[in-house]
Write a structure and sequence with these properties.
The protein folds into two domains: about 140 residues, Sandwich (Immunoglobulin-like), CATH 2.60.40; about 160 residues, C2 domain (Immunoglobulin-like), CATH 2.60.40. By secondary structure, the protein is mostly beta strands. The radius of gyration is 24 Å and the shape is elongated. It has four helices and 19 strands. The two termini are about 30 Å apart. The strands form five sheets. It has a five-stranded mixed β-sheet, covered by helices on one side. A four-stranded antiparallel β-sheet has the order 6-3-2-9, with no helix packed on it. A four-stranded antiparallel β-sheet has the order 5-4-7-8, covered by helices on one side. The longest helix is centred in the last third of the chain and has 12 residues. A hairpin with an 8-residue loop joins strand 12 and strand 13.
Length: about 350
């Protein structure tokens, strides 16, 4: 069924007495420390404000420092969010789309009680010029709310492939209503095609020579489609796997590296034994995709297969956060012993 396979033993009992295992203790359990905060372009509350007004900014690329610079000058005639007080507290936020995992967002300071804020700030991105030419700049204006319910005030999106890089002057742009395509562009990290199977202890019968004395979880990583491309030459990707709460070397498995391909085919099977049926409620299979480089690897996206209860053996853990799709996939495996369950799951920021 696959060209490579891994099989390791997995013991859960030792973790039930070790609450510290429930906390982030590896790069897998704490992917955010590697990837940075990759939030939706439209995080926050949209409110009921219609986009209006203009924003003045300029774009430049510093060849010497290999730095993309967004010079945010000012805004005029922004929408009023708090009509009773006649005020808005605006700030400007930028993304490079599609979000390349390491880029994240940039934002200016907040200017209070004004619909004509003056910033004169530079938002900087360390990136290669060739990478910029396959991206878009999304610049949006927001009202800052102390309780976190920020209101969208308008945006402008620029295709950097067609940008005139000789134009370094400040220019005015009309703010437009939100674009759902920008949301999808940030959130989409690719799709993993995989199958999973659970073999309960002794379920294959005494006559079967491969009847496992303890339960086994089989994970067949087939391929990934539409990965984020960090370089013009493509992406050199591989998949890491842990079964949380275990973040030890015994739990860690990985596929080979597929070079220069945004649609890599791995065809790699991993087998974890030592699973009792009750462990399936408290364990979480974490599969993450990485771009391989000599000095460091860069996180591209991942999935977590589990019940998503937020608890593992009675301990509160933030990695037990499976989405509805991931939970349904895991539940189907639990209810169909000894059968391969196949699925297509979107990669996400963990």
């Amino acid at each position: 069924e696959s060209d490579t396979a891994s099989e390791i033993s997995f013991q859960f009992n030792k973790h039930k007495k070790t609450p510290s295992i429930g906390s982030h203790s590896s790069d897998m359990a704490s992917v955010s420390s590697v990837s940075g905060s990759v939030l939706s372009v439209y995080s926050g509350d949209f409110g009921s404000v219609d986009a209006q007004g203009t924003v003045e900014f300029a774009l430049d690329y510093d060849e010497k420092n290999r730095e993309f610079q967004v010079h945010v000058s000012q805004c005029k005639d922004l929408a009023v969010v708090d009509e009773k007080k006649g005020r808005s507290d605006p700030y400007v936020k930028t993304y490079l789309l599609p979000d390349k995992a390491r880029m994240g967002k940039r934002k200016t300071s907040v200017k209070k009680r004004t619909v004509n804020p003056v910033y004169n700030e530079v938002l900087r991105y360390k990136t290669e010029k060739m990478v910029l030419l396959i991206q878009k700049l999304n610049l949006s204006v927001w009202h800052n709310d102390p309780l976190g319910r920020n209101s969208f005030l308008g945006e402008i999106e620029i295709d950097l492939a067609s940008w005139d890089w000789s134009n370094r002057k400040l220019n005015w742009y009309s703010l437009k209503p939100r674009s759902l395509s920008a949301v999808n562009s940030v959130d989409h990290r690719g799709v993993m095609n995989l199958s999973i199977k659970y073999i309960p202890p002794g379920s294959l019968g005494k006559m079967c020579p491969k009847n496992p004395p303890s339960g086994e979880v089989h994970i067949w990583v087939k391929d990934v489609k539409d990965l984020l491309q960090l370089r013009p030459s493509g992406v050199d990707s591989f998949v890491k796997c842990y079964v949380l709460p275990d973040t030890s070397k015994k739990s860690y498995q990985k596929t080979r590296v597929i070079k220069r391909d945004t649609n890599p085919v791995f065809n790699h099977t991993i087998v974890y034994d030592g699973f009792h049926t009750e462990d399936l409620k408290d364990a979480c299979v974490e599969l993450t995709v990485w771009d391989h480089e000599k000095l460091t690897n860069h996180f591209l996206g991942g999935i977590r297969l589990g019940l998503g209860t937020g608890l593992s053996y009675g301990i509160s853990v933030d990695w037990m956060d499976s989405t509805q799709e991931e939970v349904a996939f895991w539940q189907e495996m639990m209810s169909a012993a000894n059968e391969w369950i196949e699925g297509l799951l979107p990669l996400r920021s963990l």
